[in-house]
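Worked example

This section walks through a single chain of length 296. The input is the sequence exactly as stored; nothing has been trimmed or padded.
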Amino acid sequence: MKHVRVTSRLVALVVVVLVGAGACAFDPQSGGSGGGGAAPAGAAEQATGASDTPGPDQRGRSTPAAPTSTASKPTPTPTSKPTRSATPKPTPSTGTSTVAGCPQGQHQRAVETYLARLGGFGAVTVDGRQSAADCAAIKKFQKRYGIRPVEGRAGPTTFDVAQRLATTDPARCKAGTGTTFCVDLTRQTVWAVRGGKVIMPPTVTRTGMSGYRTPAGTFTVNFRNPKEWSDPYEVWLPYWQHFTQGMGFHETTTYLHDKSIGSHGCVNLLHADAVRMWELGKVGTRVVLIGRRPGT
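Given that input, the structure is written out below as tokens.
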């Protein structure tokens, strides 16, 4: 009888361990963050509504072909006439060719064009065909702007970021005589100007999502803190530089290129860019925002 009770307790213990209380804890950093602005009642992380939202530059999983039956099919008699085997040339749309272990994406030529225009990422040949040099340049570009995975493939996210950066016109920002932080809300890019010269080239950002639109206009940095705590969203905001209505510049806590989410009005930045803007800015720095984020 004693043996049966011990066995029963062991079985019960195993059931508790296996079933457990395996609840998933909500991560307050899963969305963008504002610096203290009030959120609409019942609001959650919302999609931006932007069209053609690119995802991570990853190839899809191939579907195995259905097996075919060979029963009752006659075996063809080989002919004596030799045939020439031709290797098909890879096309940019397949994304299957590789050079030095580097896959080719469907936006190869366009990305080559934009990287050549931007400069600073190495030699690229604008011909729509992957090469070792192209691969190295694309990888360098992906690493710089936090695009995952860094594999040299010219996929949708790489194309989107390259296009936005290459088409940003710094001259559209009406900068002052001192340092000015400029934000193109339409292209989701940010840069810095001082004395009429660009001192920080355009880089990527992500602003307010649908329901939390970041407004266009001219403002001033009026408060800074290297690590600010957001009361309404309970998240740290590294390199915080506030400019209006609880909105400010700060390092993002999520994958910047996830367009299905956004901030609550703040200007999200990659770590290196948040640090650089912190070094350039001060209380009184002019902030100019132009355009409007698509879908907001």
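What to look for: The domain at 98-166 is CATH 1.10.101 (Muramoyl-pentapeptide Carboxypeptidase; domain 1).
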